[in-house]
Amino acid sequence: MKKSIFAKPHNHKIDKTDFEKYLKNTKQKGRRLKPHHPVETFDAKQVIDMLSKKSVVRLGVVQGADDNGRRISILVGYNSNGKIVGKALQTADPCPPPPCEQN
Hints:
Helix content: 10-25%
Structural class: alpha+beta
Largest sheet: 3 strands, antiparallel
Number of strands: 3
Oligomer: single chain
C-alpha cells in the first residue's frame, strides 16, 4: 500500500468565543470584510455519497469558471495518493440545484 501524500490533518474548528472575537477584531481595526459572492453550497446527500466511497480521504474545493466567466467552486474527493476520485460536485449557484425530490 502506498503512503498517503497528505500531511496529518489538523483541527480547523474554532469555538464560538473565538469566532466572535475575530469578528469584533475586524470591526475594531477598521477593517471591512470584502464583499463576496453569494453563499456557495453543496447538496448534503451528494456530499455524503461522495464521502461514502472508501477511497476518499480528503475533500478539496477547486475554483473554476463557466462559459460566461462566472466563478464556480467544485468540491472534489481525493484518495491518499492525491488523485481525484468519484464525481465532482459543482456549487448550486450559478449551477441550477438538483430538482427537489417529492416524497
